[in-house]
Structure formats: structure tokens, C-alpha cells
Amino acid sequence: MAKRLLNNKLRLSDFPEEIDNENGIKIYGDTSYENQMAVLSQFLHNGNTDISRDEIVAAILDFLEYKKEQNPNTGIEDSYEYASMVAENPIQYSLFNDFFDVPFPNPQEGKHTLIDLFAGIGGIRLPFNELGYKCVFSSEWDKFAQKTYFANFGEMPFGDITQESTKRFIPQKFDLLLAGFPCQAFSIMGKRQGFADTRGTLFFDVATILERHRPQAILLENVKQLTTHDHNRTFQTILRILDELGYKVKWQVLNALDFGLPQKRERVIIVGFLSQNRIEAFNFDFEKQPYSLTGLLESDEIVDTSLFASEKILQKREKQTEGKKIFYPSIWHENKAGNVSVLDYACALRTGASYNYLLVNGRRRPSSRELLRLQGFPDNYRIVVSHGEIRRQTGNSVAVPMIRKIAQKIDYILNNID
Ligand SMILES: C[S@@+](CC[C@H](N)C(=O)[O-])C[C@H]1O[C@@H](n2cnc3c(N)ncnc32)[C@H](O)[C@@H]1O
After folding, report:
1. What are the catalytic residues?
2. Domain count, the chain
């Protein structure tokens, strides 16, 4: 992007981008184009007055430059004067369709507000969107997850939540905090220092935000192993800190299989409220939903040929399943041929390796759409990144129907109990 001066000040994009290639994920810092888009998203959706006018104009200018680079013939002006004019009343310009013309638009006047931390591709947010909750801030530092999130919610998440430069965009008041935070080891110090005990972990950032903003309700999601990690100490510390912060919580390990998805995937869910009455009204009693693969699989004809298993794998499978009863449709684990009669659900979706063992009807790997359906994402959810990225993104995401059931209970409580 061209380097320019804005009001005699350097613009954010004049600084080098912070890119961390750890695990092959590019992480874009607060100086990136994505961050400019995040500023613009927040301004367009929430009219956030905490953002300085300079920052908004800079973000609009970056956006105009980007649009012009993409399509030089549209006559888009990318001058500072034009960007300042647009900033006065952006909605009157037809420049921002990408922010509104999406499958899951942010409700304009939400009855409740939320922030979406470690947002991934928005699996936790999606059911709250359906209930009319307005998202006022989101954070996700992976560029490709940001791209998927933007295409579906019209909002570019801010980047690294550990940075104050990111946290400063969180509005002071909101009702609900959502976070499927990555679990890291805590080094628990001798002295009990409250949430300072978790410094250096991402839970510390969640706790810091809770302390500063004190939303009415929280929904945290994590892998089941969090409950037993480090001889239960990690989980106990989390519960203790939430309690010290004034949150009364209930938690439970839930399985996607019980929420109508043909996928064994267990996750711990923590729900908390500031009010005692509210937590007393909450429970994890859900009626088990039957699961089925019917209607979930795409026909082989429309699936990309690159997803079909090699002749060698097919022969191995044939040998392993000889004389065994085989059910169709099924998703099997390549190395668990002996179990095919009972494996009428998919293996837990995980990022990377385990996907390579999943076989749909013994023939091919699951497609991007099937992976999204396995997590309960509706079919109008847009796919705008490579299949490899969808594998990673769905593996990191959540069983949407499971969150939907929890969201409905939280919503009932926020609306009916003080
Ligand atoms: C377990 S996933 C959550 C997925 C999400 N619940 C969904 O539905 O897709 C955790 C996410 O946190 C993101 N993440 C990790 N560290 C982060 C940080 N410091 N700032 C912002 N995002 C971060 C990762 O890129 C990953 O997408």
C-alpha cells in the first residue's frame, strides 16, 4: 500500500506489519490493513465515538486505496479530502456493501450487546446473532479466519487481544462476553494474586477485560482437557478467579453428538452471571437430539476430485472391511475399520492431522461444506478461503447447535430475571 501522510502524521499503514509465522499462521498486528478494516467495521456498525476522527479517516483512506488497487477503473477517489467527506456520513455512499451485504448481518438495534473474543469464524457468536444480539467488538488475529468472519458477518475482527492497542477498542459497556480461549499452562505462584496468577496466558486477558468492563454475563468454551489439565489446577484457578471477579458460574462438559450433530466432540462450557438469581435460574439440562448423517453429505459428483482417496488407501480399506457389515452413509476413521459398524458419526474434527484419516463412505475426505455442516453451520455460511483453511477453521470452531441451546437459555435469563 502506498505510503502517505495524513494531516502531517504518519498513517498506521506506514509502519512495518507485525507478522509471526509460527505454525504457518500469519498474524497481523495493529498496524495492518486488517486492523484498519476493523476500525472501519466498528465505526460503520456501531458509530463508535471513542475512535478518533483521524483514525477513522485513515481507515477509510486505506479502504479506498485498496478498492482502487483492486479495480482501477471504478473511478474511486482515494484522496484525504474525499475520505474526510465520507467519514461524515458513510452510509450515504455505496462503498461499504461488503460490510452489510452478508449472510449474518449485525442487528442494527440489538436488545443486548456482546463482544466476541478469540472469534475464529464466529461459531459462538452466530446463535446470538440469530437472537438479535449486537456485536460491538470482536478479536481474532489469524488473517484467514478474519477473512471468513468478514465475509459472513461484515465485520473485520481486531487483532491480538493481548495488546492494549487492541483492548482500547472495546466499548466500556456491553452485556455479554464470549470467549473460546486457547488453553495454556498457568504457572501458579506461591502468593495468591488473583488473576495476576495467570499473567502471560490468554485467560489473563479475559479476566482483565471482565474486571474493567463487568458485563452481566459470560460464556466461555474450551477443550474438555481444560478441566483436568495440570491435576485440575488450571481449571480450579480459572473458577476461583471468576469468583473473585464476582461471577457466579456453572460449568459442564457437553458433547456435540447430543445436539444433533454426527460428531463426537466434547467441550467444557462455563456460563456465568454477576447476579445470583440469574445463575440459579441457569442449568445445563438439554433434551438429547438424535443425530444423523443424512442430508449432511454432498454427492460425490460435486466434490472436488482432489478429495478422493488414492487407490492404495481404497485397497487397504477393502481388506480391512472384508466380511464386515458396513453402513452407508458413514464417516469412518481410516485406521478403525473394525469399528465401522458403530461409527456412524464422524471423528472429532481437529485441526491438521486427524482430518487426514476421515473417509466419507470409505471413498473420500469431507468437503469444506461438509466440514461446516459437521459443526452445524447453515448452508448460507460463506466459504471464501482454501479447503486447507476451512479444515483448520472448522477444527478450531464449535458445534453451533450446542451453543444455540445455551444461548437461548442465557437470553431467557437476561430478559426475565434480574
Ligand atoms: C479455539 S479457537 C476459537 C474458535 C471460535 N470459537 C470459532 O467459533 O471459530 C481460538 C482462536 O483464538 C485465536 N487467537 C489465539 N490467540 C489470540 C490472540 N492473542 N488474539 C486474538 N486471537 C487469538 C486463534 O487464532 C483461534 O482462531
Report:
1. 183
2. 3
